[in-house]
Amino acid sequence: MDEAPYQQALEFAQLAHHDQTRLSGEPFVSHPQAVAATLRDWGLDQTAIIAGLLHDTVEDGGATRDDLVKQFGEEVALIVDGVTKITGIHLTGSTEEQFVENLRKMILVMAADLRVVLVKLADRLHNMRTLQYLSPAKQIENARETLEIYAPLAERLGMGKVKGELEDLAFPYVYPDDYRWLKSYSAPYYKTAGKYMEKVRRDVHSAISSAGIKNALVSARSKHMYSLYRKLLRPENNRDITKIHDLMALRILVDTPEQCYIALGIIHKLYRPVPYLGVRDFIANPKPNGYRSIQTNVFGPEGHIAEVQIRTYAMHDQSEMGVAAHWHYSAAKSAGASDEKLEKGHVEVSDKLSWVKQLVSWQNEITDSQEYLTALKFDALQHRNLVFSPVGDVYDLPRGATPIDYAYAVHTKLGHQTGGAKVNGKLVPLNQPLHNGDVVEIIIDRKRTKPSHEWLGFVVTTTARHHISKALKN
Ligand code: MN
C-alpha cells in the first residue's frame, strides 16, 4: 500500500486520540496502530488498513464521521460504522434466544462488507493481548465474549491461527482453575512429545528429500492449550492426556497437491497407518470453511502414534488465514500476478461471494440447532431490515418500514413525540423507507402529545398502526 495515505490516517488518529491513554499507560493511538499492523500482516487492502487505524476515532476519539468521509472517503467511513455497530451489540449475559438473534444480526452487519469483521477481529485480538490491564470483571466479560463469539467467528471464517490465539488468550480468564491444572498436568507430556516428534521429523525429512520432493518443509506443531482442554473434556477422553494423539503433530508443506499424495505414500511406507484412526483427505473433500489438508495417524518409532498433516503452502496459508488469505490472493491477482503462479498449489481464488455463503451456512446451522427458531422465522428474516439505535440496539423491521415504525418499535411514547428523524446522521423525511444497517435517531418534539393522521398513510408495522389509531381515537 502507499505510505502517504497511511501516514495521513495515522496523523488523523493521533490527533483524534491525542488526550487519551490506554489502561496500560501507553498513548491510545498505540491500539489502532497495532490493529492496522495486524491487518497489514493479514494482507488486507489499503482501505481496511486505514479503517483499522481510524476505527475508534469517532466512537472513542474526537473526530466526526464527516471529517472521516472528507479525508478518507465513504468506504472507510462505512467500515468504521460497521465496527462500531458490532461493538455495540452485546452478546454476553443474554438469554439463549437473544444470543442467537443478536448473533444473526451481527452476521448481517458483517455481510455488508467482510472487512468490517476482519477489522473487528484485529481489534479484539489486540484487546485480548493487552487484557491484563483491565479490571477483573472486564477481563472475564471480554474473555468470555471472545470464547463465545469471536473465536468461533474466526473459525467459521477459516482463520485457524487467529482462532487459536484468541482462545488461548481467553482461557486463563474464563477457566482459571482448569487452566492452572492443565498447564502443570500437560507440561511433561508436551516435553516428551516434543522430543519424540523431533526424531520423527528428521526421519520424515530425509525420506521426503530422498524421494526428490524439493522445497518441502517438515515441522512439528504443538496443540493449542484451549483446544487440548476441549478435547480432554470429551467424555471418551475423561481428562486423560494419554488418550490425545495430536499433542504434537507433524506438518509437511509442499508445493502441489500431487506432492501431498506422494508425501502420504512416503509416510505410509515409512510408518504403518493406524487402522482405526484412518486417513482423512480434506483435499479431495474440503471442510465447509475451506480447510484442506491430508491427515493420517501412524505408528512411529517405538510404536507411538503420531499425527501427520500434509498440505501445500497455499492451503496452509488458507487454513491459517482463511478469508484473509482469499483477500490476499485476490489482491495479488489484481496486482498482476499470473494465474499460473496463483494456481500453483491449486489456490482457488475465491469468488467474492464465497464468504457470504459461509456466513449464510453458519446462520442455517444456528437455526437448525435451535428448534424454537422455526424455519418460518428464518424465512421472515430474509425480508426484514435490521436498523440500529444511536447506541447500537438492534431493531428488526419489515421491508418498507419508516422512521415512525422504528420509533414505535422502540417505545410508544417515542412514537407519539416524534418530531423528525436522522438516518446515518442526516435529516430525512418521516416516510422514508429504512435500509438494512441504517442508524436511526429520532428527534423528540416535547410539545407533541399525539401522532399525526398522515402517518397512517405510510407506516407498515402493526405496532405503529395500532398505537397511532388508538391515540387518535382518544
Ligand atoms: Mn478498538
Compute the average pLDDT.
83
Assigned CATH superfamily of the largest domain: Hypothetical protein af1432
User: Counting H and I runs of at least 4 residues, what is the number of helices?
Assistant: 19
What overall geometry do the principal axes of the alpha carbons give? elongated
Query: Helix amount, in percent?
Result: 55-70%
* Share of β-strand residues: 5-15%
Instruction: Write down how many β-strands occur, each being a DSSP E stretch of 2 or more residues.
Output: 11
Please tell me the total number of domains. 3
**CATH structural architecture of the largest domain:** Orthogonal Bundle
Task: Give the end-to-end Cα distance, rounded to a whole number of Å.
Answer: 64 Å
Largest sheet: 6 strands, mixed
- N to C succession of SSEs: HHHHHHHHHHEHEHEEEEHHHHEEHHEEEH
- Give Rg in angstroms: 26 Å
At the fold tier of CATH, the topology name of the largest domain is Hypothetical protein af1432
Bound small-molecule species: manganese (II) ion
Low-confidence stretches: 332-358, 366-382
